[in-house]
Amino acid sequence: MKWRLVAALIATTLLVILVQDIPLSYYIQGVQRDRIITGLERDAFVLAGRSEEALESPTPESIAVITEVAKRYQASSGARVIVVDGKGIAVVTSDPDDSKIGASYLSRPEIGTALTGEIASGTRYSQTLQQELLYVTVPVFSGSRILGAVRLTYPAQVVDDAVAAQLRQLWVVALTTVLLAGVVGYVVAAGVTRRLKMLRASTERLADGHLDERADEGAGASELRSLSRSFNVMAERLDGLIAQQRSFAADASHQLRTPLTALRLKLERAHDLIHTDPDGAAERLAAAESEADRLGTIIEGLLLLSRTEAKSAVAVPVDVAAAARARVDHWLPLSDESGVAIRYEGATQAVASVVPTATEQILDNFIDNALSVSPRGTTIVVRVESRGDRVALHVLDQGPGLSLEDCARAFDRFWRASSQVGGSGLGLAIVAQLAEASGGTAKLEPRPGGGLDASVLFPAD
Q1: Closest residue by Cα to residue 24 from 122, 163, 175
Q2: Of 206, 210, 276, 430, whose Cβ has the fewest other Cβ atoms within 10 Å?
Q3: Are strands 131-142 and 90-93 parallel, antiparallel or unpaired?
Q4: Digits of tens for pLDDT over the chain (461 positions)?
Q5: Roughly what angle, to the nearest 10 degrees, separates helices 358-373 and 320-338?
Q6: Full-prediction pTM beyond 0.70?
Q7: Residues 383, 384, 387, 389: is their CA dihedral positive or negative?
Q8: Angle at 460 between CA 454 and CA 461, to 5 degrees
Q9: How many CB atoms lie under 10 A from the CB of residue 130?
Q10: For residue 434, which of 295, 346, 318, 293 has the smallest C-alpha distance?
Q11: What is the 3-state secondary structure (H, E, C) of the chain?
């Protein structure tokens, strides 16, 4: 992965440089050519001004002066100079020999154009010199009269060499940029892949059973730190779930061992008495049946708690007030048989965000516990209150109540109060799990004057 990242960065940098530098090279070539032509035009006009007097009143001395200027100019700039009169006859040349003096240049297009009063510039191939030339030709004026023309020719290769020199510098910079991009890409990719390798090592250690393994959240890019935090959250969750399952298995095995042992002993005793004491055997079988019912209740509670812990249901809007009234109506016949009154009070509507069926299961557990401890003639109150961003569900009884210490422990699995008769010790653990799955909290509090306030706070929808 590291080298793929480096290659991707180098390829991207190279592509950007090509897209930028290819048009730039053409631009540099045009600018360099225009610069040279502009310079030649300027110099040609200067030479034309110096040649005006010699062409208007030619004398050997004036021609010699212009010739000397032309030769010095060629020596310093490399441009060849030809000065012609109004008929296109060469009167001055910068060539070492004077063989071109007196020759007619009227056939040259640029000379003909200049003698009409216009500036001529461009490139053409010279058959005499066997090379491409860059030329500039300007007229020599004396007032409105055209006395002749000055032509400067420049090897086009000089322009190409100047452009090539600038392009070499450009490509050196481009190559340096690509190399720097490679170095930076290697450093960045090495940092990224090192963090990823460390995270992979942490993942493998976690998969091997090292549940205390955690990734470093304080180093690397923000995305890698976020990934490390997500990994740690997953590891914490996994550690918690496995610890929860281990605790669940330990508690379940411990709680199931007692009723199973009791059931076995009762069945063995009934078997021993079946011939000698049928009534005693029947009594032992009835006790074994009761123990089997208790065992079934514990198993059902364990299964329900396991399903609740594995639940990933999405919370939905639920009218807790309507659900509470419905459960009160459901429990009313049983409460009447027990001599305990039950009634609803509170909001007419209170919509909360709750996982499906959680409200009904929580109410059933609270009311069942309240009925089991409430003396005859007392009242159970189911109350629902809206508290801004929370919906409170209360079940208040007038039973013996619990101490603050017992209230804190009541939601532990298999915990039962010393005064509690029967029960699996799982009901309130299920309540706590359902409340947590809904984003709420469950609590038990002693009531002033006796009894318990069993409550759950749900997030309002």
Answers
A1: 163
A2: 276
A3: unpaired
A4: 656 666 766 777 777 776 666 777 777 777 777 777 788 888 888 888 888 888 888 888 888 888 888 899 888 888 889 899 988 898 888 888 777 788 888 888 888 889 998 998 888 777 766 778 888 899 998 888 899 999 998 787 776 777 777 777 777 877 787 788 777 777 776 666 777 777 777 888 878 877 778 777 777 667 777 877 887 888 888 877 777 677 666 656 655 665 677 677 777 777 777 778 887 778 777 777 766 766 666 666 556 556 655 455 577 899 999 999 988 988 888 888 889 999 999 889 999 988 887 888 888 888 888 888 889 999 999 999 998 889 999 999 988 888 777 787 777 766 666 544 445 556 677 788 788 888 888 888 888 888 889 899 999 88
A5: 30
A6: no
A7: positive
A8: 140
A9: 7
A10: 318
A11: CHHHHHHHHHHHHHHHHHHHHHHHHHHHHHHHHHHHHHHHHHHHHHHHHHHHHHHHCCCHHHHHHHHHHHHHHHHHHCCEEEEEECCCEEEEECCCCCCCCCCECCCCHHHHHHCCCCCEEEEEEECCCCEEEEEEEEEEEECCEEEEEEEEEEEHHHHHHHHHHHHHHHHHHHHHHHHHHHHHHHHHHHHHHHHHHHHHHHHHHHHCCCCCCCCCCCCCCHHHHHHHHHHHHHHHHHHHHHHHHHHHHHHHHHHHHHHHHHHHHHHHHHHHHCCCCHHHHHHHHHHHHHHHHHHHHHHHHHHHHHHHHHCCCCCEEEEHHHHHHHHHHHHHHHHHHHCCEEEEEECCCCEEEECCCHHHHHHHHHHHHHHHHCCCCCEEEEEEEEECCEEEEEEECCCCCCCHHHHHHCCCCCCCCCCCCCCCCCHHHHHHHHHHHCCCEEEEEECCCCCEEEEEEEEEC
In contact, 352 and 461? CB cutoff 8 Å? yes
Cα–Cα–Cα angle for 33, 36, 37, rounded to 5 degrees: 85
Q: Please give the single-letter amino acid code of residue 389.
A: D
